[in-house]
Amino acid sequence: xxxxxxxxxxxxxxxxxxxxxxxxxxxxxxxxxxxxxxxxxxxxxxxxxxxxxxxxxxxxxxxxxxxxxxxxxxxxxxxxxxxxxxxxxxxxxxxxxxxxxxxxxxxxxxxxxxxxxxxxxxxxxxxxxxxxxxxxxxxxxxxxxxxxxxxxxxxxxxxxxxxxxxxxxxxxxxxxxxxxxxxxxxxxxxxxxxxxxxxxxxxxxxxxxxxxxxxxxxxxxxxxxxxxxxxxxxxxxxxxxxxxxxxxx
Length: 249
Ligand SMILES: NC(=O)c1ccc[n+]([C@@H]2O[C@H](COP(=O)([O-])OP(=O)(O)OC[C@H]3O[C@@H](n4cnc5c(N)ncnc54)[C@H](OP(=O)(O)O)[C@@H]3O)[C@@H](O)[C@H]2O)c1
Fold this sequence. Notes:
This protein is α/β, with parallel strands linked by helices. The chain has 8 helices and 7 strands; from the N terminus they run βαβαβαβαβαβαααβ.
């Protein structure tokens, strides 16, 4: 028996990187996993990888109509939702001097507003005892140059998980943040356009991590499965760091 046998789960941004690895892991634990993403080719490929335990629903979490369509699909299956991993986010390097309205609005619309409405609109579907996991970042704790707007969105996410844990405790719904350190995903490599510079960027990030390497998406997924399951039944409002020691030692 898996940890999540027969439980419906949603992973936003489940088509690549940490989201895909988490969807694969939740399905391996017995869940039926709904996954979302904006690009159809990537979403279809992810459903193919996971198999019959996955349902793909194309959509943008910053678009409330897309969220309604997503939740209509989940409601149609008639089992509610036991696990919600609000994972979808975007990032880009932009200094304070370079920030445009578009950069600010895009990051806050997706990472903050999109995450808030992802969880708000799930509330009627969440079963008592459900687990909500928000994807934060170690960047929320530091002031890395040119990452200020992204870091601020992730600080907002950490704050949301505290408030929502408090607001939802009466239904036995736990809300936690997972806090990955640098993790080897398409999203991480995509921060630097030039492939040679990207390799150097990844090397420099890895050198800062006490364990001397980037995280693997599967390692974040293992912690997501823990937070999703009853094994973490006494943990709420927390932030679980999966960062190779980056912010710990
Ligand atoms: N990788 C790291 O080092 C790292 C470290 C700390 C935290 N994180 C966090 O981990 C999460 C996943 O990151 P990742 O590195 O795995 O990124 P990724 O490889 O770029 O994956 C992002 C996923 O989110 C989807 N997505 C993006 N915007 C969306 C939107 N508006 N609506 C719906 N889906 C959307 C993407 O699909 P589409 O583009 O097709 O929509 C994709 O499936 C993010 O919250 C990120 O901030 C990552």
